[in-house]
Design a protein that fits this description.
This protein has 564 residues and is an alpha+beta fold. The protein folds into 4 domains: 37-61 and 229-294, Elongation Factor Tu (Ef-tu), domain 3; 64-225, no CATH class; 302-412, Immunoglobulins (Immunoglobulin-like, Sandwich); 460-559, C8orf32 fold (Roll). The protein is 14% helix and 36% strand. The chain is built from 7 helices and 31 strands. The chain has helices spanning 79-91, 114-120, 213-227, 460-471, 476-488, 505-511, 516-529; strands spanning 13-19, 24-31, 38-44, 50-57, 64-69, 99-110, 131-132, 150-161, 173-174, 185-186, 198-199, 203-208, 231-237, 254-258, 265-274, 284-287, 302-305, 309-312, 317-325, 343-352, 355-366, 372-377, 382-390, 399-408, 417-422, 436-441, 451-452, 494-495, 513-514, 536-545, 550-559. The strands form 11 sheets. It has a 6-stranded mixed beta sheet with strand order 18-24-23-20-21-27, with no helix packed on it. A 4-stranded mixed beta sheet has the order 3-14-15-16, with no helix packed on it. Strands 9-5-12 form a 3-stranded mixed beta sheet, with helices on one face. It is globular. The termini are far apart. Residues 178-186, 240-246, 289-297 and 429-459 have low confidence and may be disordered.
Length: 564
Amino acid sequence: PTTTYTCSIPDDSYFTIYDTYNERSVYSTCINREIGHTHEEVLDFSFNLDNVIFETDESDTFTAIAPIFNLDSMENMTKTDLNSKITYWRSLPVEKGQTCPMIIEKIMVQASSLAAARTSMGTYNAYTNYYARPAHPQDNIDTNTPANSTWEFLRATAYWKAPFTKNAGEMFVSLEQEGSIEYTNINPRPDWREERTIRRPKIGSVETSDESNWSTYNDVCMKLKDKMTPSFDITVDVANLRKGRYNDYQLHDKVYVKLPDYQELVTARVSKTSKEAHDVAKNTISLDNYSINAVKNVQKRTYLDATNTSFKYPNSKDLTVRLVNEDYDSQDEYSVQYPANKLISFMLYKVENNSSTLTKTSYTKLTNAYGYATINMAYDPGDYELEIRFGGDEEYEETSIIIQVNVSGTKEVPKATITTTKSKPVKKTSKKKTTTKKTVTNKAKKVTSSKTRTSSYTQPSDLKKKALSIVGDSTGLDAAKKIAKWCGTRRNFKYSNYPNFHRKAATAYKMRSANCCDSTRLMLSMMDAAGCSEKLKLEYVHCHNSAAHEGHIFAKITTRATGK
């Protein structure tokens, strides 16, 4: 049976999987290491970097790792055992992404016989329930009381998804793609008719003394992860970025850098800032002593599927949202369409007078096996915005969506109760008048919100600033072309698959992701914010395929002067 434990771990904590048998750490990672702000804008060598000093060192970089078996450190192993292990290792096939053993430990199983010991460990499966006998097991057989006998086994105590493929018949584990770096090509003689080029990976090595092939695979993979990317030293100045008006880089901020001839985006820390008080366009930053160990992960794109909703007070209503893997591959048996056990957060905002105010209502839910997360809504009458967010993880990108919630009806405010207390009767000779004391008690409580929504919501002013920074001094059709090019660049804006108009322009800009409807809305809104509508006519065009029950939205832009 599987036991699940849940606990809260502070940021900057290290999560480590420790192999107690071999007394070593087999996996370690820092959780939510956040020092400074992460800027999503990519620094590209081709257009927005100045004074670039770029050095790369590939001397200690490999595209494949092979094990070196140390017989002297292998417990109770002979040369014959070693030859058998090498044969089994060479024939071992591992497919990237499949579940396989990660940590192998030696255990003692108490049973009356070896067959009974095997039966007690369950049905054998090389990838999900792995166990095996050592080459020279240290059994303890009790002939007087057979039930007290113990039998030694190698048992998998942890599993993981294989990070790399190992082909049967090969001694090494290699990368599926060698990227843009070509290390070794063996070309035939010019006078040969055969024009085939023989490729060989650049192979490094790691010493291992583990008896189990799965432990050897673990050692090789961890070494390959460490040696698969070259190291870099970068010193750059980012001058006049975004026209200099919005250059807000601070010390220790993290930025993404697009290096020449590399497809990956790599990360660097801001180590120096230089600000010019009299000319903000001269603000510069420097990125020093960079190491490619912090390559930005290629994560799967996701989106949240939820719709606007309404209900009548004092009723409540369930809202269900679904997390969807946009890069789902139906042909890949390991690809997941609806990620399970992912944390979804919900934040409620009250909408009044075209402004949103954060309420004290929030939720967190885990997606179930089908990707669904459900909350129950019970709110006072009014209009609300519910921000739903998935923070992302190592495998999936973060995503968020804002839906509108309308609660109709009227909330009755309890009437004020008046308590009348009459004074005692007084004698007629007294000149004092009879008085009446009234006490007014209002049981209704006044609820106020103390935190105004600012940083978590992209205001239209940010959209306008971005549009102006894109167009620069251009106007009219030239400005519209620049905005269209920015919106059509995948690095700036990605496509998300969901139906109809759903996200506001500001929300689509904040998420940098939308379908054809909302991406067109964002593009036209940015053109309007940049002043293009003075000279241009901006229109939506809808085409529909009735047979396929599909439609598409795109923009039509014409000049007001000529109508073309």
